[in-house]
Amino acid sequence: MLINSCGPFTHGYYSWNGIQISHEGPLIGRAQMLAAKAKQVLDDHQSTNLSSKSSLRVLDVGSFDGWILNQLHSYGYTELVGLEPRLQNIERGIKLREILQIEDTAHHYQGTLQNPGEFQVESPFDVVLCFGVIHHINDISGFIRDLHESLKPGGTLLLECLTLDDELTNETIASALEPKDVIYENRNKEVSIIGVKLESAYYPGSADFSGTVQIPSRRALVWFLEFNGFIVQTIESGWEAKNHLEILSQTHRKEARSTLITASSKDLQLTSIHSIEYEEMAVLQCLSLEVIRKLETIINETTPAYSEEFRDQLVTISSQLSKNSSTIVMSMIHAPFTKLTFEQGKTAAMLGDTESACLRFKSIVMNINDDWRSTYRSFYLLRLMEDSGEDKYGELAQRCNPQFPIEVLNGSFSWAR
Q1: Residue 131 reports pLDDT greater than 90
Q2: What count of other Cβ atoms lies within 10 Å of the Cβ of residue 137?
Q3: How far apart, in whole angstroms, are the C-alpha atoms of residue 305 and residue 226?
Q4: What are the helix (H) ranges across 203-272?
Q5: How confident is the model at residue 147 (pLDDT cuts 50, 70, 90)?
Q6: Where are the domains positioned within the chain?
Q7: Domain 2-265 adopts which CATH fold?
Q8: pTM
Q9: Which residues are paired to 108 by β-bridges?
Q10: Across-strand partners of 262?
C-alpha cells in the first residue's frame, strides 16, 4: 500500500522483490532512454572539459520524483540538483526510495526557474537537463532564456519535449505569417508553428497552473534555442520513433512525437546585425537608368498607386532583375512616389549630379512624408554628400533610426564627382 501511495511512476521505474514498478504505459522505455542519453551527455562534457565526475554540477529542471538524478548518481555523478514545482512529487520520490532502501544523494528543491523558492544558484551549472517540461508551459522563449541563465558559458543543455510535425506548416500558413522582415534577407523564408491547448494543473505531471500551454514544432523549438543563447548540436527523434510507434498507434497518444536536443550555451544575442547591414547595403545600391525610367512611367501614370494593376507592373519589372534590385522595385508598392524620389536621388549622385541628388533627398527629409525608411536613408546619404552635413545629418539619421549601422556602412559608397 505504501508503495502504491507514492505513485504515479510515470517518469521512471523501480524494482521491489523482483517486481518492476512502473506506470509508463505507452511511454515504456522513455525514462531509460533519457537516463542513458543524459549519461552520454555528462560523460562527453566531463571528457571534453577534463573535469571529474564528482565536480560536474548538474541541474534537472522539472525533476519530478528524482528518478533520473538517482540514475546519474549510480553512474558516479554526485553534484546533482533537482528543481520541481510540485512538492508532492519530490516527497513521493523521497518516500519511495526510503521504503525501497535506495540512497537518495540528489538535492531536491521545490520551485521553478522563475520562482525558485529556496533554490539559489550560487554559480551556473555545467549541464542542465529538461525532460518533458516545455509542452506544459506557456512562455517557451522566456523559459529557454531562464535555462540559458542557469548554465555556464559553454555548458550543455539536454532538452526533450513533445513537438508538432514540421509538415503541418503549409503554404497558407506561411503566406499569412509574411516572412519579410530584415532577418530573412540572408536566410530561407521559412516559418513554423506552435500549437496552443488548455491544460489543468490536476495531474502530477501536467502544467503548474491551469491555463494555456504551447507545443512547438521541431523547427520552432530549434529557433527558440538559437535566438535565446544556444548553439544546437544534435537533434534526434524521441523514444517513440525507434520502436514504439505501433504501441502508440493503439493509444490516445497515436500522434505523439518528441524531439531530443543537445545544445551548448553561448553569449545571448537577440538581433543579427549582419542581416541589418545586408539589407541596408542592398537597398543603397542603384537601379539602372532603364529601370528608373520604367518606374517613373508606371508610378506617374497608375492610379491608384496601390492597385492590383500597379503591383502587376512592379512584378513584371522585378522579374528580370537581380535579388537586390528586385527587392527595391517590389518595395515601391508602399509609398511609391517617395521611394521613386529616393531612387532618383541615388542615381543622380552616382552620375555626379550632387546638386540634384541633394535636392531630392532634402525634399524627402524636409517635408512630412509617408516612408520612414527613405527618411533615415536620405539623412545618411546627405551626411556623405555635404561637407558640412556630417554632424547634423548623422545625428538626425541616428535619431530617426538608432539601429542604422552608420559606422559599418562608412566607406561603402564612392560618389561620382
Answers
A1: yes
A2: 20
A3: 40
A4: 218-226, 240-243, 245-248
A5: very high
A6: 2-265, 273-409
A7: Rossmann fold (3.40.50)
A8: 0.80
A9: 82
A10: 158, 234
